[in-house]
Amino acid sequence: MRFFSDNAAAVCPPVLAAMAEANTLDTAYDGDRWSAQLDDRFSALFETEVRALWVPSGTAANCLALAALCPPHGSVICHRDAHIENDECGAPEFYTHGAKLRLADGPGAKLTPESIAAALDGVRDDVHQVQPHAVSITNATEYGLAYTPAEVAAIGTLCSERGLGLHMDGARFANAIAHLGCAPADVTWRSGVAALSFGFVKNGGMSAEALIFFDTALAEATLYRRKRAGLLLSKGRYLAAQILAMLDGDVWRANAAAANAGAALLAAAAPDRLVYPVEANEVFLRMSPAEAAGLRALGFDFYDWAPGEVRLVVSWDQTEAAIRPLAQAIAALGPSPQLVTS
Amino acid sequence: MRFFSDNAAAVCPPVLAAMAEANTLDTAYDGDRWSAQLDDRFSALFETEVRALWVPSGTAANCLALAALCPPHGSVICHRDAHIENDECGAPEFYTHGAKLRLADGPGAKLTPESIAAALDGVRDDVHQVQPHAVSITNATEYGLAYTPAEVAAIGTLCSERGLGLHMDGARFANAIAHLGCAPADVTWRSGVAALSFGFVKNGGMSAEALIFFDTALAEATLYRRKRAGLLLSKGRYLAAQILAMLDGDVWRANAAAANAGAALLAAAAPDRLVYPVEANEVFLRMSPAEAAGLRALGFDFYDWAPGEVRLVVSWDQTEAAIRPLAQAIAALGPSPQLVTS
Amino acid sequence: MRFFSDNAAAVCPPVLAAMAEANTLDTAYDGDRWSAQLDDRFSALFETEVRALWVPSGTAANCLALAALCPPHGSVICHRDAHIENDECGAPEFYTHGAKLRLADGPGAKLTPESIAAALDGVRDDVHQVQPHAVSITNATEYGLAYTPAEVAAIGTLCSERGLGLHMDGARFANAIAHLGCAPADVTWRSGVAALSFGFVKNGGMSAEALIFFDTALAEATLYRRKRAGLLLSKGRYLAAQILAMLDGDVWRANAAAANAGAALLAAAAPDRLVYPVEANEVFLRMSPAEAAGLRALGFDFYDWAPGEVRLVVSWDQTEAAIRPLAQAIAALGPSPQLVTS
Amino acid sequence: MRFFSDNAAAVCPPVLAAMAEANTLDTAYDGDRWSAQLDDRFSALFETEVRALWVPSGTAANCLALAALCPPHGSVICHRDAHIENDECGAPEFYTHGAKLRLADGPGAKLTPESIAAALDGVRDDVHQVQPHAVSITNATEYGLAYTPAEVAAIGTLCSERGLGLHMDGARFANAIAHLGCAPADVTWRSGVAALSFGFVKNGGMSAEALIFFDTALAEATLYRRKRAGLLLSKGRYLAAQILAMLDGDVWRANAAAANAGAALLAAAAPDRLVYPVEANEVFLRMSPAEAAGLRALGFDFYDWAPGEVRLVVSWDQTEAAIRPLAQAIAALGPSPQLVTS
């Protein structure tokens, strides 16, 4: 059983059904009747007027957002462990034409107004240093923590004071919302977020993420950047259809809730091993190599995150029945090894 | 009935079936068992060792190829009517970091060694001018003409003599091969092509094109560029599966042959109206606005290409029965209007 | 005697003197007392508030201006024979991060509202084509013609209507002004120019050009771009001093007038050979290879511009006494050969 | 008396004299007889065949070198306090088209094989992370320490093993050599350096730095990049002349030795205040705000580097007589305050 990554999970049935339904001739690119619905559907979901674009990957969503918020000679503050810094092969630099990521710290890959301010205050206000133009936060974070509306609002206030745009990488936005139970608006535009990468792929989609602009003026140039990056697929209706299928009947919430519940099951099996609280669908556990080998010998697959630490990710389609054996195996390991960290 | 663009056609059944079959957990990105087959499958098809990458759009395939062949300070010779010049919103400049497209001429959007040499010879060999590094040709061309192996080989020889890389935009490569009847190898690497954008989307695919490197050394850096551009989709197996499904049993050839046959049917209806010979699935006809309006009133949809000229594109799934009414309507228009060209 | 290029002329005495005078310790970069005067001095010259930056080359001035006026996904309309297209090795593409130069036509390398409109109208207003954001004209043009205030104003009006920024490459702006006799304001901001590359190097300077922003809001980001391009020299006072020395006592006008007068002398020697009217310091003459060889045998050096055509450029320091022998030698050639054009 | 920066010092007499001597007509750009000597003169100095280009700034030299060593999708390892990271406004990212600087640590801004290896080992070898392609070290470092030949060779060996190019930012290379007393070759190519930014401006030049390629194959494309960046000044002979004047009679060594001696004088005044050993012309002293204010009241100017720490830089033209008063004033401050560090 794989707990390696939600990236690799299967696609959920409503998405496949919607793609089959879209399998008829329509206008190319985003001129079709599915794509045409995105603005309205997301405006309804977010209780405000937004512009919503499909893109085929989370990296694309993130980097189009950053390019909209930061000029080539600017910088984006992000966490040292952010996906945009570590896992996108320099895509932010490519899309922004060489803007700099300036790294800030915080436990659980979560930024705070203080850690952001510290990063900002380290920059001299002269032409010799790259000046900050935006902040990017990830919700849920790379370690599975959800920013609350209050936490985002505090950062949003700082951004507003300092003239910075605020981007949210929501590759696991659905998991964050499922945990928080708040309105999607609360943790985004009401808290100062200008652009959101709203992830669907990890949550049961196939190849479509939504890039949401709460600052709708940013959308116009992004349409050109999307095309210019080879991201404007000619049969875009199959992407729009995926997203719409997950909005219909709140499939996105249900899938995320299921994955979160699975993670909670694993967390409950070894509370003393948890490196971080489990709020989304990721579980980071302290585990010796021998223990990890033992679990693998039982057929469980997962990621060695760091020395003495493993990552388990639960996907939308992993049932309690499928997860329980792993939970039991973890519980059977006994007490956690000593904390190994730097 | 739409004859607007093959870009907008439905996806063919084997592709949908393959995607459904791929709907199981596997390794993310291109670590899955479908992606792993591409090199071998295309090596077999092309009778030589190639490297083959899936990408989600033709623009992406073209521009990754150009970035592999041309440095930021170089230029790519292409036809004035090439898709990379006119229809990709500057994607070549984005991917190459500012290389220049240098435009050459030729009837039917087809380059010749002579027109390429004329473009090359207009460049002073000094640091004040952008020096040529590559040539890009489109097969079938934007006007539906196929380069023969001999024509490509003549260009390939020139490229070799001048130290230029040769790229082929094969958005309708299948249609060209269906027309030429030659081995895919003949019109590509045997004729000097280093990289091919092998199109599947217009020919019945959904969201996967293949980028083929005959010069396999070019593939390595391209893997990083693909990721860096947000093109490395996490559930890549659904893209690989599309391509494999079209290679299986030569679906790609059958689809292209069907579309070409449909175009031939239309061409036969009005030989005196043809702006170009019909070799692939595109038909350019001289037609007055009144005539075009008449056809539209009958329910036929197509593109006004230029004053007095329309473009009809036949898709893989348009049957003879569906096409014949249009052919009859065209034939019924009577003799062609006078040629209107600049 | 060289009539090859004003690029290679000596530096005029007031410039050298000013540089010697600046040879004392002051604040680095542009924090010195010379650099601090530029805004005011150019504001006075142009009779309006401007922002003025020194840069070490005309290419740098041009391309910083273009980067201020055109986003990476946009295009700049310029003449097919413009320096930015032909002689800057892709610097516009480098500085703009891949914007496109869209080429327009016009005799003498001069654009008109009509030729610009023709270029604009060839662009479909959709995301598949690179949209125009700016126009760049050269005054005096690459063929030594001066745009009059009325000509620039007509272009300025078009730019204003179409939402385009207007840049003037004034590598030989001084020569244009010396010919026109108008106020510098008339042919720039009063006619809609947003940014001017004001050349000093060809006109007796050493290594300093002025980039003038009439649209002063464009200056701020340019300060960062200048630094980021390695153009913010640490001992900037020597550049500022050069420019101030040429503004003092209107040295820039006197130098340009002298060069123009020299060119007029040559033009008068062979009015039937002139390819273009001589308005600045460049003279293009029809001349057979044998005739050109004859002149070279007499010790005159110049550029073979095109088959049957040579270019003579007079520099600020070439006296009438030095020029007259060439004028006489040209006159002695007799009547012009037949026009040779392609 | 200013001890703020050697960036702001006057130009030394031989340089001015050489510029005056160059004030005659010659071929433009780098076709003149001064520029033509650079390869040979630096090849002699470095005892091996090199390619040497003038550029107008140290940032330009550094970033052209980095662009030659690192592709857009790569990274350069440098010290956290390196000039390229902190003081060039993202010029490395601009010139490399978005490569990443990956930061390593070490006291005195000096890298070691161990600190570089630690940075390298933090990078997963997959397409999701930006892979290292080069290392850049600064000699003398930003804190005035000189890398010895053995130290550079140890880094060079690591670079060679890992397939990385090695760049040396030698903005104060002369000061390093004056301290080390070794052959310039020893601390550069003999130790694995592929490209050197050889600084002249801080050491008595005006506007010319030399970019030296020991890996001569890197020079060719750099010629295009230099032009493309607007750095190929048309009257390049004045830059070449500056450099040649400083090579003649070893002016560069004498100037650097003088500055180093001045720094040593200051260091000797307060050995207990030194934050770093003084090896070049920079002196970092622990100093309370009150003490610093006292010195300033006496007419001395310098940089507040960090809380409780000031930087004094001695320039080539500051005589012992000019420096001694500051040395005495520092000595008169009495014992150093407690170390203040974060």
TrEMBL record, chains A, B, C, D:
GO molecular function, a single term: lyase activity
Pfam annotation, one family: Beta_elim_lyase
Cofactor(s) needed for function: pyridoxal 5'-phosphate
Residue stretches making up the Aromatic amino acid beta-eliminating lyase/threonine aldolase domain: 3-284
SUPFAM superfamilies, per the entry: PLP-dependent transferases
Record keyword Membrane present: no
GO process annotations (BP): amino acid metabolic process
Keywords for the protein's UniProt record, in alphabetical order: Pyridoxal phosphate
Family, similarity comment: Belongs to the threonine aldolase family.
Record note on quaternary structure: Homotetramer.
Protein name: L-threonine aldolase
